[in-house]
Amino acid sequence: MWYNNILETIGNTPLVRLNKITKDVKATVLAKIETVNPGNSIKDRMALQMIEDAEREGLLKPGGTIIEGTSGNTGMGLAIAAVIKGYKCIFTTTDKQSKEKIDALRAFGAEVIVCPTNVEPEDPRSYYSVSSRLQKEVPNAWKANQYDNLSNSKANYEQTGPEIWEQTEGKITHLIVGVGTGGTISGAGRYLKEKNPDIKVWGIDTYGSVFKKYKETGIFDKDEIYPYITEGIGEDFLPQNVDFSVIDHFEKVTDKDAALMTREIARKEGIFAGNSTGASIAGLLQLKEHLKEGDLVVVIVHDHGTRYLAKMYNEDWLRERGFLKDEKLTAKSILSRRERQEIVTIDADKTVLEAINTIKTLNISQIPVTQHGKIAGKITESDILSSLLENPSMKSAGVQEVMTKPFPFVDLNTSIDKISLLINKENTAVLVEDELGRLEIITQFDIINAMAI
């Protein structure tokens, strides 16, 4: 058997039982692995549905351009379909999204415009507004509008819901989905409730999003809105695809819990999932007291972990945000294992001879160079030697003539692994500001000394 093109492989994704990460949950928990879709996310389903519905309605014409505001997954689905069907794509996204997502869209020939996150949806700079403007400006363009285009929910009503019902032989009791556009939870949830009204549909929300309070009070509270790190779920407006009548409960999950759980899923279940899945599993564990023996829970695995390698799967990124604390040495702990040292700097206007005397007097091998009170470069023994061998008269020259680029700056939470990678033949040290804002230097000797204690 073969398929005529890659679009025919969308759907019919497997259900996989979770074991270790849900060992304290009385119910059976199954993960719907949407990462096996060609675009590695559940958004492939609705992306193709939106395109085909638009073609039928005459909204998307041959040779047209697809415009969309997307965090990456919907864009991927649209881009793959566009390759097969012969359309161009222009996507707008936010600067919150991972680089991997943006690079992946560009790999399929899409143009991607990155917009600021911390602006209102109606702000002309927002990725919603920019995509709407492009729709008007670009000839023969169609905007998919995943948030309000009900083909989104339709795809999950016609595909995801029936698949789950058949795969569980109608035994599903709970559906758990991270809610962003709302298409997955509303479409699949509506189908399942039509089959069995007793099925509970739980939506996972994030702090900084309006969904939970709106569901519980009917109030759209702008005070609930603030920036958050979790990707793929939560919103600062109400998409038309979010059918609140289908969703029985919203559970909020913190950025930290979502990020750390994302890593745990890979380490305990061997499932390489994205950030919204981490949030969903964390939410499930928060709600475990509401589950009993005999319950059958299905959790959607929305997208693939490869799109979060620089974030949730990066230990330094987690430490910088205070999400990860372990026994591994960091810049902060290296500093704590030595006596406080006044850092020595030299002004760029000083002479090379003065730098030589400072190095000799203090028995050091490198000095950060300042200019107008800021770090502008560095001068080391090897820099001085190289310049004097080339021209002995350079000892009367200004330091700025022989200095090289500054030592790298690191954060107090930067791990010893990353610091060690930064210290090499070109950079014999790194710089860091301590908790009082004082400049400190960490050398290879400091690392060795810290490890020996």
Automatic annotation (TrEMBL):
One Pfam match: CBS
PROSITE patterns: CBS, CYS_SYNTHASE
Keyword flag Acyltransferase: no
Listed cofactors: pyridoxal 5'-phosphate
InterPro entries: CBS_dom, CBS_dom_sf, Cys_Synth/Cystath_Beta-Synth, P-phosphate_BS, TrpB-like_PALP, TrpB-like_PALP_sf
Alphabetized GO MF terms: transferase activity, transferring alkyl or aryl (other than methyl) groups
Keywords linked to the UniProt accession: CBS domain, Pyridoxal phosphate
GO BP, sorted A to Z: cysteine biosynthetic process from serine
Domain CBS: start-end pairs: 335-396
Keyword Transmembrane: no
Family named by the database record: Belongs to the cysteine synthase/cystathionine beta-synthase family.
Name assigned to this protein: Pyridoxal-phosphate dependent enzyme
Species, as recorded: Arcticibacter tournemirensis
